[in-house]
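To: structure subgroup
Subject: Chain for Friday's discussion

All,

I'm putting the inputs and outputs inline so they're searchable in the archive.
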Amino acid sequence: MLQYQQQQLAPEPIIKPLANAQVVLQVPNPNPSSRALVNDRGTFKAYKGRGEIIIENNTVTSADIFINGEKINIAQPLMANNSYKYSLSKRTHNGTNTFKVENVQPEGASLTLRFSYPTLVTKPVKSVQFNNVDKLINEEVAAGFPGAVLAVIKDGKLIKLSHYGDAKKYLADGSLLEQQQQMKSDTLFDIASNSKMFATNLALMKLASEGKVDVEKPLFYYLPEFRGAGREQRLVKDLLTHSAGYPAVVDFHRKDNKFGERFFSQNSLRTKNLLLTGVPFVAGRSVKHLYSDIDYMLLGVLVERLSGQSLDNYVEGQIYQPLGLTHTVYNPLQKGFIKNQIAATELMGNTRDGRISFDNVRTDVLQGQVHDEKAFYALGGVAGHAGLFSTGQDLAVLAQLLLNRGGYGDKQIFTPQVLEQFIAPQASDESYGLGWRRAGNGALQWHFGPYASPQAYGHTGWTGTVTVIDPAYDLAIILLTNARHTPIEGNETDYEFMGRKFETGKYGSIVSLIYEAILNKH
């Protein structure tokens, strides 16, 4: 069996450099159209009272620049080989803004215009009343729901960042702590399967934008070990759409997993080898969408192979840190955070109140270690399907990155074209994009509620997290809960976490009330 090698890189395709602005216009256009009118104008996204233009002048002495039809006052004459920055705060509005350049002198002289991406106004602006949302969550906290953080982004502003209840309230035996740990707006959460989107998918979208991966290619093109039993026919896209035919889970961490003891692994390297060469398919390719953690475990391996780095090093160093995010990490307890900064999850480790046992099972309250057993035991806490911890405000920035179609400030993480490719509906099921789940036409109301536009997309996480990105409304919703930090009710085989009985832990009702507050604003 070929061994997984961290540094074995796939053949390098041509890399297309990303821009450092959402729009870059060069005058004269190096690739002019036969219709000159289209070469000196365009659009950019901005918000009312915000935005700036950067003029990088080469040889122009004067030019007329218009924003939304109004000429801006720029210093004339322009100095050769100088850069100029102008605020557009008096001329921008929410959404799509226009620009054009005229009367460039002398004829044939050149300059470049750059429009930065919008950044999020992170100091909460109370422009909408969310009384019904707060009332429901507070009532449920009073009735026993553990806690939550809610972030709402609208038109480039964080219009709500609220915390409710407790980050930790129970001991392992289900008794209440004498002094509960209160939730804070910057509490970190184990975001579970939202890791698939805000780590693995963002990484793949960046790599695709750089020309380093093509989702239409077979996975073995990048991972040569991935062969046999039909693996050669599986495309990267098949994993992203959960249509490769893999089982929903393989419990590598347990010797009694359904595929036998030879699939037992509590070692990351061994698990990756099993993923690449061992896990059997349970359905044919593209027969149906079967949501599977295996798909994203493999995609995490793909990111590592393409980048030559561990998944956590890549996303933290190449995506989060350039955006100024310091609270979005894998394995937070190994990276300077302490338990009191993190929301707790299950009470008795991974035992379901003593119903489950396996080698090295955790039995204390989980806080700061990823809950997902496969991620923790089999992949060292760093996995493509789970393991990421984050806060409401950090995820709000990543949501704005998505609403900006790939960039934030002067950083472009992925291109608009790649975003469109990843969020486009699949012909077989409009609720699936590439990894992203979609509201479609009401297909997932339990997630998106009844008011989301058909273009809305996002994901959920087992621990109690939900994200909604709705470009039609320039809106994002991030609800982080510790719904699993509650006692369990039921018998040995039929049981449920008490936190999952509450509407806050079921997502759709909270999402719906947020939409109502936004849409009914007067």
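Points worth raising on Friday:
Residues 6-15 have pLDDT under 50 and may be disordered.
DSSP finds eleven helices and 22 strands in the chain.

D.
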